[in-house]
Write a structure and sequence with these properties.
The complex is a heterotrimer. Chain A has helices at 2-9, 13-30, 32-35, 66-102, 104-118, 122-133, 137-164, 167-175, 179-215, 227-234, 246-253, 256-284. Chain A is mainly α. Chain A has a domain at 76-223: MetI-like fold. In chain A, helix 4 packs antiparallel against helix 5 (104-118), helix 4 (66-102) packs antiparallel against helix 9 and helix 10 packs antiparallel against helix 12 (256-284). By secondary structure, chain B is an alpha/beta fold. Helix content of chain B is 39%, strand content 26%. In chain B, the strands form four sheets. A six-stranded mixed sheet of chain B has the order 6-7-8-3-9-10, sandwiched between helices. A six-stranded mixed sheet of chain B has the order 16-17-18-13-19-20, with helices on both faces. Helices cover 78% and strands 0% of the residues of chain C. Chain C is built from 14 helices and no strands. Chain C has helices spanning 2-29, 35-40, 46-55, 62-74, 88-123, 128-142, 145-159, 175-181, 183-209, 212-219, 224-261, 267-277, 280-307, 310-313. Classes of the chains: A mainly alpha, B alpha/beta, C mainly alpha. Chains in contact: A-B, A-C, B-C. Chain A: This is Peptide/nickel transport system permease protein. Chain A: Its main location: membrane. Chain A: Keywords: Cell membrane, Membrane, Transmembrane, Transmembrane helix, Transport.
């Protein structure tokens, strides 16, 4: 714990900004019901109200408060992305480490399977499966987790393979150590930095992916507030934006706000990931 | 003679993550035309940095912070790119340690040869090609007319190193920098390259700086020797003078390594073997690497296995340890036939047979502390826990001469190369083994450190009656530590017997070649050897 | 040797395509219930169901239907759309052309620009240009495609009014008009794909410049441009080709979102609409085309990598 704090203190400005932003998102997501001025799906005013003291970010095409939906959106979008990433990671890193350590038929079969899944772009695959399974949250999470776990598998297998060529693994094997010890005590401590960085990158990818599907109308379904769907719902407003008054101009921002919220979080995560990668490359020296 | 190169008070700094460190701390160096200066020192002495600086070049991340580098009246320290281009390659040429990495894989050898003279507008391409062929011939490359048409990966290491020396001569430079040009080569190959380099440098009357960590090599090549230690000069003297009477203790200690002799021990009549390798053959895939190898290790003795790269000596160790199952033959340990695979061997057998790797760096998990590295085998093999385990860890650290209180909580990254190797020895000892396989355990270390490791191994053998199977390519090490010697070549045993017998003629022809190729401290050794070989060839013809 | 490797890679590519086509086909078979009742709904009579099955060849065994579908796909015949019973080939023909036009448009701008800037960033490492490129790259990589698209629309369409926000194209349109109409979607894709491409090009070159033979070339007293052009570039060809092919593959996928934003009549738009309508046969056809393009581009990257490796080109 102390070591962790010490490392955090050496973080460069960019990583600090990233961490602060992530913390802010986390607070908003956790405290959404306390922070939001109106309920998530309630119609609280006229349609398409411009920004005002009452509705800071105006209202949407049904008359729901945009600010409230943005706040709830943090909870829904980020929460589901996090859940999916965790699932993808457990699946991908587990099988990846196991495949590298065990070798043999397990490695061959799992690698071939991953090769096939990765031969097709994830979006295309996801669209195919969602056509069949329908667009429920469970299907969404499962499909994306499985597709994304392929990349985690590739990385964790490659990292583990690099570590497994080290003589200290040979020493452990000659000693007669079991599989559990080798993965847990010899491989994992050395693989942690690249895996943490990969977790950040995967989260970004999953987050953007879910948002993209929602934007296409195939992700989270209404009335759940979700940033991707909000972009989709307000997209046509951009054409009505005129720059005669600042309130009219805010129509142009309607799709950009949720899209920007998505972009800002991914930038923040990437800033932290860059730093972690930098740290882990330093360890190799 | 005129001064060709004059370096005064040179300081070079390297920028690293931890900040700046000075790696050359005010060194003077001067060189006359046609003179060869040997630069010698251990790793981290700054000799390569100094060699490159002599051409006005510093590695990325380094910078010259003080002093001057005057080459034939031109100041190279801080010189602009235009001036450096006129000097580098054309008047000062560089020969790198790894020719395989220093040749561009995309171009033929001769194209890379011609690039310098043609780009510097010294001669037309046709003339450059003709000169290349004659230099290839001088360097005694096979098929000099056609070897230039090959790509770098198509010729052997020794040939490539000679092709690079030829390339460095392409602009008829006045000064050549040789940066450990033979370090990566086997001894028998090294001789050919050394002879070719020396001849070509003398014939073209060039000056040279010859960088190496091997005193015996530098004795053959240099007129004068400069000894460096941690970025500072220790002493400088003409070669013969320095060899006869080194002034500084450090220089003398470099000599001493070669003289290490284990304490004499009483000779019980032929002890029974603890390990017998019987008719073992092995292959990687379909490629055979061992052919009918039989070696036996008597209890309490050291058997040294020597051979050049590709001789199968490390593969033999892997077979014994059960990492590579043999295709034929068996390994017998203390009367029991060992299972071909390590994982099928009972734990007691695994305990009694330990191995120490060449690279201590990769043999220690960088995330485990010393306590865990030594504690795990104690727990695993002997079932020690708690207080008892802790005490034993401290005993082991004492045994390898590392102070327990200072070292027990360190990570491998916080140890020096020699300390890491000692830790590996302690880890092997923790299992209370009877036989330890030492796979090139000293070859990645500086000579002084290596000597310390040899002394330690010798002491442990005396105290605990250990047996060693000692794998090495270095005959000096064999001479000092072995009781019996096995010579391997191309996956087979060429000759074996007690040390005294092996170092006395008559030898098997390969053993003869191997023995005679080891450079000796005598500056006339190479000349004499080449003379002898020429005589033999004449006699044979 | 090299021929063997290339042929092997082609064989693997063909096999992958076969497996993926099977996956696309059989995934639909996993659907609970059957397609006919799915499409015609609860109100369908047994007779209409039977007629529908007959017309769409659903009565045959699955294996036979797969072979039939695959054979048809190879000759450009993807069967009938479930939603409106029109031949799929007719639906997608023009759209495939539109999609490839847009992707090609973006690629022609993005590839030379990205490689050029990536090279510059690698050569002048640590310079202002390099820092600008790596910062902007980080930003663009983190942005969702639609974010970039809407910023461009807001800027160039809503505010400046230079380009249309909807990329409307019709078959008879001239090239100039077409390029103008599709400028914003193309620019969006250029921005998205360039960031990756620059980053990867830079990394490939930086790795290369750290190699001993590059230092050796400098120590020969060669001019900087010669070190780069003669010593670095021939060895950089393979990694750069890989970068380009991978990014073109990425482009093909990115096109789906961009088409939706700009309401561009391409294959991606059709795919998304068909997913919403659950028009299986059209989804299958579109997925197969996207997947095949992606696989072929990856194949190309690998083959170019093999062919430009001197060690393989000139065996011992």
């Amino acid at each position: 714990m102390n070591a962790l704090l010490k490392t955090l203190r050496t973080a460069p400005l960019s990583a600090r900004i990233g961490m602060a932003l992530i913390a802010a998102y986390a607070v908003v997501a956790l405290l959404a019901p306390l922070l939001a001025p109106y309920p998530e799906a309630a119609i609280v005013g006229a349609k398409y109200l411009p920004w005002s003291a009452e509705h800071w970010l105006g209202t949407d095409m049904l008359g729901r408060d945009v600010l409230s939906r943005m706040i709830y959106g943090a909870r829904n979008t980020v929460g589901i992305a996090l859940l999916t990433t965790l699932l993808a990671f457990a699946l991908g890193a587990g099988t990846g480490l196991l495949a590298a350590t065990l070798g043999g038929w397990f490695e061959t079969t799992s690698s071939r399977l991953v090769d096939v899944l990765m031969a097709v772009p994830s979006l295309i695959f996801a669209l195919l499966i969602l056509t069949i399974a329908g667009t429920s949250v469970v299907a969404l999470v499962l499909v994306i987790a499985v597709l994304d776990s392929t990349r985690v598998f590739r990385l964790s297998r490659a990292v583990a393979q690099g570590i497994l060529t080290m003589d200290y693994i040979e020493v452990a094997r000659m000693r007669g150590e079991g599989l559990g010890w080798i993965i847990r005590r010899e491989v994992l401590p050395n693989a942690s930095a690249p895996l943490i960085a990969e977790f950040g990158l995967r989260f970004c990818f999953v987050f953007l992916f879910i948002s993209a599907l929602s934007f296409l109308g195939l992700g989270l379904q209404p009335p759940t507030a979700d940033w991707g769907s909000m972009v989709r719902e307000s997209a046509k407003l951009i054409a009505f934006a005129n720059f005669s008054s600042w309130q009219a101009a805010t129509f142009g921002l309607a799709p950009l706000l949720p899209a920007g919220a998505i972009a800002l979080l991914t930038v923040a995560v990437n800033l932290v990931v860059d730093w972690v990668l930098h740290l882990s490359s330093g360890l190799k020296e | 003679m005129t001064r060709l190169l004059d370096i005064r008070g040179l300081r070079i700094e390297a920028q690293s993550r931890e900040g700046r460190t000075e790696i050359v701390k005010g060194v003077d160096l001067s060189l006359n035309r046609g003179e060869i200066l040997g630069l010698i020192g251990e790793s981290g002495a700054g000799k390569s940095t100094l060699g490159l600086a002599a051409m006005g070049h510093v590695k990325p991340g380094c910078r010259i912070t003080g002093g001057s580098i005057r080459f034939d009246g031109l100041e190279l320290a801080g010189a602009d790119a235009r001036l450096l281009r006129q000097v580098q390659g054309r008047r000062i040429a560089y020969v790198a340690q790894s020719s395989a990495a220093a040749f561009n894989p995309a171009w033929r050898l001769i194209a890379q040869y011609c690039e310098g003279p043609v780009q510097h507008r010294l001669m037309p391409r046709a003339q450059a090609e003709a000169e290349a062929v004659s230099l290839y011939r001088e360097m005694r490359l096979p098929d000099p007319e056609r070897i230039g048409a090959r790509y770098p990966h198509q010729v052997s290491g020794g040939q490539l190193q000679r092709a690079m020396t030829a390339m460095s001569m392409s602009c008829h430079p006045e000064l050549l920098i040789f940066d450990e040009p033979t370090t990566a080569l086997d001894v028998t190959t090294q001789i050919e390259v050394l002879a070719a380099i020396r001849e070509v440098v003398r014939r073209h009357d060039a000056a040279a700086i010859y960088i190496t960590h091997d005193l015996a090599v530098v004795a053959q090549m240099a007129d004068r020797i400069k000894v460096l230690l941690k970025g500072r000069e220790v002493e400088e003297a003409p070669t013969r003078e320095m060899l006869a009477a080194p002034r500084e203790d450090y220089t003398r200690s470099l000599w001493a390594v070669r003289n290490f002799q284990p304490a004499p021990r009483d000779e019980p009549a032929a002890p029974e073997p603890i390990l017998s390798i019987v008719g073992v053959s092995a292959s990687y895939g379909t490629h055979p690497v061992l052919r009918d190898v039989s070696i036996s290790v008597p209890r309490g003795r050291t058997v040294a296995v020597v051979g050049e790269s590709g001789s199968g000596k490390s593969t033999t160790a892997r077979v014994v340890m059960g990492l590579l199952p043999p295709t034929a033959g068996q390994v017998v340990f203390d009367g029991q036939v060992l299972d071909p695979l390590s994982r099928n061997r009972p734990r007691t057998l695994q305990r009694r047979l330990q191995m120490i790797h060449q690279m201590a760096d990769t043999a220690l998990n960088p995330r485990h502390r010393v306590r865990e590295i030594l504690g795990r085998p104690l727990e695993f093999f002997l079932g020690l826990r708690g207080r008892k385990k802790e005490d034993r860890i401290r005993d082991l650290l004492d045994q390898i001469e590392l102070e327990p209180d200072r070292f027990i909580d360190r990570l491998p990254g916080e140890l020096s190369g020699g300390q890491k190797q000692r830790l590996c020895i302690a880890r092997a000892l923790a299992a209370e083994p009877e036989l330890i396989i030492c796979d090139e355990v000293t070859s990645a270390l500086d000579q002084l450190v290596a000597e310390g490791i040899l002394r330690l191994l010798d002491r442990l053998q005396r105290e605990m009656g250990l047996s060693y199977l000692f794998i090495t390519h270095d005959l000096a090490t064999v001479r000092s530590i072995a009781d019996e010697v096995v010579v391997m070549q191309n996956g087979a045993v060429v000759e074996q017997g007690p040390k005294a017998q092996m170092f006395q003629p008559p030898h098997h022809p390969y053993t003869e070649k191997l023995l005679s190729s080891v450079p000796e401290m005598d500056p006339d050794w190479l000349t004499r050897l080449l003379g002898q070989r020429q005589m033999q060839e004449k006699g044979a013809a | 040797m090299i021929l063997k490797l290339v042929l092997r890679r082609f064989a693997i590519g063909a096999l992958t395509l076969l497996v993926v086509s099977a996956l696309i086909f059989w995934a639909v078979e996993l659907l609970p219930g059957d397609i006919a009742s799915e499409v015609l709904g609860q109100s369908a009579t047994p007779e209409t169901l039977a007629a529908f099955r007959e017309r769409n060849g659903l009565t045959d065994p699955a294996m036979l239907r797969y072979l039939h579908w695959l054979g048809g796909a190879l000759t450009g015949d993807f069967g009938l759309s479930l939603a409106n019973q029109r031949p799929i080939a007719e639906l997608i023909g023009q759209r495939v052309a539109n999609t490839f036009f847009l992707a090609g448009y973006a690629a022609v701008i993005a590839v030379p620009l990205a490689i050029g800037l990536g090279l510059l960033a690698a050569l002048y490492r640590g310079s202002a240009l390099d820092r600008f490129i790596s910062t902007s790259t980080l930003a663009v990589i983190s942005f969702p495609e639609f974010f970039v698209a809407y910023i461009l629309i807001l800027l160039f369409s809503a505010w400046l009014g230079w380009f249309p926000s909807l990329a409307t194209v019709s078959p008879g349109m001239g090239l100039g008009a077409r390029l103008y109409a599709t400028f914003l979607p193309a620019l969006t894709m250029v921005l998205i794909v360039m960031a990756h491409m620059m980053r990867m090009t830079r990394a490939a070159i930086v790795n290369l410049l750290a190699l001993p033979y590059i230092e050796m070339a400098q120590l020969k007293g060669l001019r900087r441009w010669r070190v780069i052009a003669v010593h670095a570039l021939p060895n950089a060809v393979a990694p750069i080709f890989t970068v380009v092919a991978l990014n073109l593959a990425y482009l093909i996928v990115g096109v789906v979102l961009v088409e939706v934003v700009f309401v561009y009549p391409g294959l991606g738009q059709l795919l998304v609409d068909s997913v919403a309508k659950r028009d299986m046969t059209v989804v299958q056809a579109a997925c197969l085309i996207f997947a095949a393009t992606y696989i072929v581009l990856n194949l190309l990257a690998d083959v170019l990598g093999i062919v430009s490796n001197p060690r393989l080109l000139h065996p011992r």
